[in-house]
Write a structure and sequence with these properties.
heterodimer; A: 263 residues; mainly alpha; 12 helices; 62% helix; globular
Amino acid sequence: MNYLVLIGILIVVAGFALRLNPLLVVAVSALATGLIAGKGFVEVLSAFGKAFNDNRFVTFIYILLPVIGLLERYGLQQRARTMVGNMRGATTGRLLIGYLLFRQISASLGLISVAGQAQTVRPLVAPMAEAAAERQDPALTEEGREKVKAVAAATDNVGLFFGEDIFIAIGSILLMVGVLEQNGIHLAPLQLSVWAIPSAIAAFLIHGARLLLLDRRLSSPRGTSGEGDHPKGGGGVSVAASPVTPPPRFAGSPSPSGDGEDL
Amino acid sequence: MIGLPQLYLLAGAMFAAFAVLSALDRTNRKRFGNAAFWALIALSFFAGDLLGRGDPPTTSEAERAASSERRGNRLFLPALIVPVTALVGSLFLKDSGWIDPKQVTLVSLGAGVLIALTVCYLWLRPPPLAPVEEGRRLMDSVGWAAVLPQMLAALGAVFALAGVGEVVGGIAGQAIPEGSLFAAVAAYALGMALFTMIMGNAFAAFPVMTAAIGIPILIHRFGGDPAIVCAIGMLSGFCGTLLTPMAANFNIVPAALLDLKDKNAVVKAQVGTAIPLLACNLLLLYFLAFR
């Protein structure tokens, strides 16, 4: 076995860690891996180019940007904020839990592209979550604001990933059927997709609990709350948090402490 | 000091020369296509660093607030046209015969964009170029991250060509102590997550880990239920997708779209969900598949 082909993985990890331009890192990694595996330059380039070409649909989603940009020009994000402002009892956590449920259910019905980072998160969900967070914590820092937006994006991903596999005609289910088929095990898609349900429930409970914790953190005045499991971030009351000290994490679960890559 | 910029000039000159010679190559019927391709690469070497974030004309915060006040909740309607068209299209146009049934959602999404744009032109009467300028504003904020998902997919193809998967699968297979069911389950679930983090894609990890551990050890040796092993194995991989910048379209592009300063902010927000969820999947696999 040629262990040297793993060099590409090292290059990617090192490149991302050193914050080199990822496009360059990826190209170098592909070339190195291919050449070490004894493939010719042309063969590597053509495999790379073919896959690049075959995956153009990933970049297709930007077709939405003109519509979203135009609506933002006329105040869409402001509208989303006003709407949340008028909803009594709307909190960041409750809003995002609602969105998580919507995303999991719609994805489980195969409706993958009706929502998404460009479709719904940027124009609607993130501004709404931000507006709710501002109301819960009027002294919300810039960093806190960024965190709330990042959690909105994360909620979309969690909802999508742990909803779509319940649908029988999704790519990953068909891939499983195919792999098992090659090994002489014959299963129908439905037999696989029902077993995505326990994990989907677990995802809803875990992410939902984190969203509720986020609510508690946003609503409790900083520095006085009892659930300060991160005493480090609990000090600054009204002074804008310095960029060096990160605000408390959302949940007491393991999180990376530094700025490093999670590769 | 000589550094990368000078090397890039050299490489740029080489690709530019490829482009010129390709254009002159009368034996190739598609020579202008080749020439244009190499010229693009040359351009990226010569001018890639000259790209900057544009500042297209847009409305001010105050103008937006006023417009939002005046137009009220009707502003949501055009934004909802796109998802609703995608939904209606996927439900009703699948068997229409004039749309590829496999791509019906994306086609409907594209149609939704055109309908929404038309409605916006008629209702808001923006300057003719405004949608493109506003789109460019958002596109520039995404920047290079826009091509990264395609590049990573291409990297995955080269990894597959080079047999990286077999090597990783082999290592994972050897790492399991003989006879321990829990260790085998853990190796499969964690291996799926780790290899997905490396590849940025659970689809690439699944065939490899399933051929190395899932089928020979969990299904054949320990008699696990294939449907449960595979379904939960794949979802363990999805936990890995939440944890890696290599899954650029889910993790890096959204950070760019939302204008976050930290490009890894979305991954960081997902760690607290992904790790407990991975542990849950491991236990679900252990307790459900081997009854």
